Structure formats: C-alpha cells, structure tokens
Amino acid sequence: MGIDWLRDLIICIFGLVATGVLIFIAVLLFSLYKRVRSVLDSVQAILGTVQNILAYTGDKLVRPAVQLLSMIQGIRQGIDAVRKFSKKR
Fold first, then answer.
1. Degrees (nearest 5) of the Cα angle 8, 11, 16?
2. What is the DSSP letter of 81?
3. CA distance 89 to 83
4. What does the alpha-carbon distance between residue 27 and residue 14 come to, in Å, rounded to a whole number?
C-alpha cells in the first residue's frame, strides 16, 4: 500500500460524496420548484379573478359613470355658452 493507492482511495471517496451531495441538492431544488410552481399557479389564478372583477367593474360601473359625467359636462358647457351669448346682448 503506497501513496498511490491512498490517493486513488481518497479520489474515489470524494467522487462518491460529491455525487451524493449533487443528488441531494437536485432533490432539494426539485422540491423547491414544485412548491414555487404551486404558489405561482395560485397567484396566477388569483390575478385572473382580479382581472375579471376589474373588467366587470369597468364595464358595469365606470363606463356608465364616465358617460353620465361627460353628458353633465356637455350640458354645463351648453348652459355656459347660452349665458355668454345672453350677457353680450
């Protein structure tokens, strides 16, 4: 048993330990990926629901309010125009 045999033994042991560590890290990363993926799927579903709520709110509430306010503003501008013409005379 010379130094060559000891060197080869240490290289083999290091290779086995490194392989085990790499497998352990791969399993941890895969587990983390599955957890993160499920969280991202949940977030995506929530964002889809929020987007639908906002679209519904925009269609049923905001658009009619904007139309009403623009009609009121048009009527007010018309009244102001009539007042201008009546003041000049």
1. 125
2. H
3. 10
4. 20
What would the DSSP string read from start to end of 16-37? HHHHHHHHHHHHHHHHHHHHHH
| pLDDT for the residue numbered 89 | 57
How close are the terminal C-alpha atoms of the chain, in Å? 122
Burial annotation 4-14 (CB, 10 A radius, 16+ → b, else e) = eeeeeeeeeee
With H, G, I as helix, E, B as strand and everything else as coil, classify residue 79. helix
**Measured distance CA(52)–CA(76) in Å, rounded:** 35
- The gap from C-alpha 74 to its chain's centroid, in whole angstroms, comes to 40
Residue range 44-59, pLDDT digits in tens: 999 999 999 988 888 8
Q: What percent of the chain has pLDDT over 70?
A: 98
Q: Please give the model's pTM, rounded to 2 decimal places.
A: 0.49
